[in-house]
Design goal:
By secondary structure, this protein is mainly α. Helices cover 78% and strands 0% of the residues. It has six helices and no strands.
Length: 142
């Protein structure tokens, strides 16, 4: 694709990047707690920190894919929004509004921007094909 992605797809990439940063912040906080001895077990705290860092990196990779309108990024981005929304609701139920509200808002914004028609066209490779298909249908068959 020689042109830039649609505005809403770039917004979806920004949402995905923000979610990556949120996971990274939570990972740093978990790492600090582990280093301070406030983790239930040292091994589980270290594992949680490593898994969190890897997850943040993968979410950032998906955000980069969205920013470049890569087809492979659509499904992981949608699954991220589903997971973030579920975690956000769980946090709200646990009275953790400072984390839950932003997660639910990010999830809703992510779904909205990813499922916008312009984003779907860009991510399914149909950007600009509508005109070609119409021209092909208008041609008489021989």
């Amino acid at each position: 694709m020689g042109h830039s992605p649609p505005t809403l797809l770039r917004a979806a990439a920004a949402v995905q990047a923000a979610e990556s940063v949120a996971v990274l912040v939570a990972t740093v906080l978990a790492g600090i707690d582990t280093a301070a001895g406030r983790s239930y077990q040292l091994g589980s705290g270290v594992a949680l920190t490593v898994i969190g860092a890897a997850s943040a990196a993968l979410l950032a990779l998906v955000a980069a894919g969205l920013a470049r309108a890569r087809r492979w990024s659509r499904t992981p981005a949608l699954l991220t929004q589903l997971f973030v929304g579920i975690v956000g609701i769980y946090l709200l139920q646990g009275q953790r509004f400072e984390w839950g509200v932003p997660m639910v808002v990010l999830s809703a914004a992510g779904f909205t921007t990813l499922l916008a028609p312009s984003s779907l066209r860009a991510l399914t490779g149909r950007e600009g094909r509508e005109g070609q298909e119409g021209q092909e249908r208008a041609r008489p068959k021989r």
